[in-house]
Amino acid sequence: MKKQICILGSTGSIGTQALKVIEEHADLFEVYCLTANNRVEELAQQARKFRPDSVVIANEERYDELKELLHDCPEIKVYAGKEAIDEVVQAAPIDLVLTAMVGFSGLSPTIKAIEARKKICLANKETLVVAGELIGALAAQYNVPILPVDSEHSAIFQCLVGEGNNPISKILLTASGGPFRLKTADELLHVTKADALKHPTWNMGAKITIDSATMMNKGFEVIEAKWLFGVDVDQIEVLVHPQSIVHSAVQFVDGSVKAQLGVPDMCLPIQYAFTYPDRITLKGEELNLFNHRLEFFPADQEKFRCLAMAYEASRKGGNMPCILNAANEIVNEAFRNDACSFLQIAEVIEKTMNIVSFDANPSYETYIQTDLEARRKAMELLSL
């Protein structure tokens, strides 16, 4: 039987690469549902090619447009709205859900998929950043595996396979350093959106590319690793590795280090999450170590305040990471819309963290309210 896959965020970078994996292994996988936020044309094209049972466009205003684009495919059910996404992930035939939506929007459907006992292939890091404790508890309650798709977390996961309960000394989380790794603090005063969108290694969506430039993306990955692997946040060390060949490593208490290496290609971690514990062939470039020099540098948390604030938020716990994420989503978009400077990103996030109501023991409803409050405060600070 082919595995039936639901892709949340199929038109984004992760979603499109996941469809490449599915196409390459059409004997093993089949698309059951595709969702997108706004890109109706791309979603319709994907639906025509992969013939899923259903498609969902989150933006309800674009429902009629999507329906018209698929008018000659009556076998494909067309839905719209966030509630429809929450419902579709629970469909009985689905074996696994790839959560590749961007931002806070990925939280609710991930919870619904867990409650429906679907295997989760997690590419939406904000889900664990915002509500890691809640997600972990639900996964345990419903006995649902959460398999990481981020290249770094997949690497850590692969390093831990076969290690049983062997204790970890620390996780070595690698970072490319982004486009501003070599810039001075003074030079960061003048960087532009165009500069920030030129990532040296990875081809990603605009939001995550800006997060990489601020190193907030790596901060989110620190928080995500804490929940995925059950370690204290101070056991996670960020190493700047410009070549992006070592995707991350684990150091054990005996001093040994296991690392996972590969070319910068998301198809491998996506496929591994789909097939775990098995490995199957994957077309594409293979790593040739003779062609690469491997370098590692400490991360500069003074220059990249977003990374430092992610550590601070994780140490404080409660709803603080939720505040961090909500403020970041606002300022990230503001920067992309030329409504704030690069250095203002960290300034606004820090101020938001200081003024939004803190709750040490948040419920799901608390996360919803915190997200709304933090967004509102960040927008006020930006005068939006």
Automatic annotation (TrEMBL):
One of its GO terms (molecular function) is 1-deoxy-D-xylulose-5-phosphate reductoisomerase activity. The keyword Oxidoreductase applies. InterPro entries: DXP_reductoisomerase, DXP_reductoisomerase_C, DXP_reductoisomerase_N, DXPR_C. NCBIfam families: Dxr (TIGR00243), PRK12464.1 (NF009114). It comes from the Bacteria. Residues 146-229 form the 1-deoxy-D-xylulose 5-phosphate reductoisomerase C-terminal domain. The keyword Oxidoreductase applies. Pfam families: DXP_redisom_C (PF08436), DXP_reductoisom (PF02670), DXPR_C (PF13288). Residues 5-132 form the 1-deoxy-D-xylulose 5-phosphate reductoisomerase N-terminal domain. It catalyses: 2-C-methyl-D-erythritol 4-phosphate + NADP(+) = 1-deoxy-D-xylulose 5-phosphate + NADPH + H(+). 1-deoxy-D-xylulose 5-phosphate binds at residues 125, 151-152, 176, 199, 212, 217-218, 221. This is 1-deoxy-D-xylulose 5-phosphate reductoisomerase. Catalyzes the NADPH-dependent rearrangement and reduction of 1-deoxy-D-xylulose-5-phosphate (DXP) to 2-C-methyl-D-erythritol 4-phosphate (MEP). Residues 261-376 form the DXP reductoisomerase C-terminal domain. NADPH binds at residues 11-14, 124, 126, 205. Keywords: Isoprene biosynthesis, Magnesium, Manganese, Metal-binding, NADP, Oxidoreductase. Belongs to the DXR family. The lineage of its organism: Bacteria, Pseudomonadati, Bacteroidota, Bacteroidia, Bacteroidales. Coiled coil: none annotated. Pathway: Isoprenoid biosynthesis; isopentenyl diphosphate biosynthesis via DXP pathway; isopentenyl diphosphate from 1-deoxy-D-xylulose 5-phosphate: step 1/6. Its cofactor is Mg(2+); Mn(2+). Mn(2+) binds at residues 150, 152, 221. Its EC number is 1.1.1.267. Signal peptide: none annotated. The gene is dxr.
